[in-house]
Amino acid sequence: MRHILLSAATVLLAGSTLMGFARSAELPKGAAHNIVLVHGAFVDQTSWQPVADILTKKGYNVTLVENPLTSLQADVDATKQVLAKQAGKTVLVGHSWGGMVITQAGDDPRVSALVYVSAFAPEVGESLAALSKAGPPTEGGSAIHPDAKGNLYIDPKVFPSAVAADLPPEVAEHLAHSQLPLSVAAFEAPVTIAAWHDKPTFDVITTKDRVIAPEAQKSFAARMKAQTTEIAGSHASLVVHAQEVAEVIEKAALVK
What we know:
By secondary structure, this protein is α/β, with parallel strands linked by helices. The chain is built from twelve helices and nine strands.
């Protein structure tokens, strides 16, 4: 899956070198130097690579969290381990399921701002199971099913159109059959902290999303009083619209 995602990014960001960017710019005075990116369910951390490379080239210290996806606490712990290694102000960013994770992990004093990208944004006591019922049903949400081992997947037949409609078809098909499972335990676990109550918060809403209804995303953003940016893209906008997503993260980095 790692190489497939990077191949997709290569096609969509033609002319850019995705790997190995050296820092080549000086950050604005007072900007958070650190960006921590938390991926969603069903894919791995390389889903963030196009955004990471844009920000790294601009001089940010970018770290991709590798979520085990075995429980909410496991993913929060993985994120906190990364946060503990950051020196100074840090912007914490979550995509999809990653929004659950940053809500719980984002109370770390190093975190200067939170950014939600096509993401769930719970209140204390809310689980992904509860939030998945927010807003109108979606093609992708309705296609999530458990297997015999208690792991959740999106129906591979539905995945390409629901999750990655604006990726090349061959890439979307491969991703559909290379999913990383999310445990049912993670799906049902409520958060005990909602860091967005105390942190400046930004939200990228994807208006063509077929996994998290745009209406639900907007309701989450309104509840958080987040600064919102709308992108006319799918749930895979962190790849397809990496530049716009990176610009929102840069705005969050400038929060005083």
